[in-house]
Design goal:
The protein is α/β, with parallel strands linked by helices. The chain has a single domain, classed as Purple Acid Phosphatase, chain A, domain 2. The longest helix is centred in the middle third of the chain and has 15 residues. 25% of the residues lie in helices and 17% in strands. A six-stranded mixed β-sheet has the order 3-2-1-9-10-11, covered by helices on one side. The protein binds manganese (II) ion. The site of manganese (II) ion (MN) has 7 residues, from helix 3.
């Protein structure tokens, strides 16, 4: 065994893991958010899916995420809205159906000139790299829901992406990790913390807040599409969704 090399000076702080809830085309809120928590090279930013559709500038959101990858680690969870876009692009779903579910606003942000082909190829290729689940030692991150009794690598993608917490509020996951998710928007703009599950879709595209959460510390940053911002911490757990 070679002698261990001298420890490097520990100038670098360990990175943070910060999750961002459903952005839905709110490019101004996202830009304000990144200004607030200022991602550093060692950080991991996890977007929980549904970065596109409904809001004013889906294209601008995706451009920001592509640029963010040059500053820090970016993990993108695939939401049901990116799934619809991909299905529409691939001819697996009628384009009209996606347009009807908020895709019309997204397509507007791409100029619409040549219909669904107006979407930058680079963006479509980017969406294809997005994942179902991301795990840290204490948490796991999914878009919408999960099965408590199934391992995280054997979750049904349909429920991960589509199932509302109003239809089914899962028990704690068998891994013991805290679930951090979006998808089920809270129209009052509130974070829902059940202890074993935290939902941070606080309805930015409907006049609520975009929420970012650092689960390890409970730090919360929130911004609005007006550019407004505030900081706080994760509310104490409540018993019901
Ligand atoms: Mn969703």
């Amino acid at each position: 065994m070679p002698p261990s090399s001298p420890a490097k000076p520990s100038a670098e702080k360990p990175g943070r893991t910060i999750a961002i809830g459903d952005i839905h085309g709110c490019a101004t809120a996202l830009a304000a958010m990144l200004e607030m928590f200022r991602p550093q090279a060692a950080d991991t930013v996890v977007t929980l899916g549904d970065v596109i559709d409904r809001g004013p500038d889906s294209r601008g959101v995706v451009q920001q995420l592509l640029r963010l990858r040059e500053q820090c680690r970016v993990v993108c969870i695939l939401g049901n809205h990116e799934q619809m876009l991909l299905d529409a692009v691939e001819g697996l779903m009628p384009v009209q159906e996606w347009l009807h579910h908020g895709g019309a606003q997204a397509l507007d942000s791409y100029g619409r000139g040549s219909g669904i082909n107006s979407i930058d190829d680079e963006h479509v290729a980017f969406f294809r790299t997005w994942v179902d689940v991301f795990e840290t030692p204490g948490e796991f991150f999914v878009h919408g829901n999960y099965w408590a009794t199934r391992p995280l690598d054997r979750q049904p993608w349909r429920d991960l992406r589509w199932q509302s917490l109003h239809w089914h509020t899962p028990e704690p996951h068998r891994s013991g990790k805290t679930a951090v998710l979006g998808h089920t928007s809270n129209k009052q703009g509130r974070i829902v913390n059940l202890g074993h599950l935290v939902c941070i879709d606080t309805y930015c595209c409907g006049g609520g807040w975009l929420t970012a959460l650092e689960p390890a510390t409970g730090r919360v940053w929130q911004t609005q599409e007006t550019g407004e911002g505030r900081e706080g911490s994760l509310p104490a757990p409540t018993g019901r969704f």
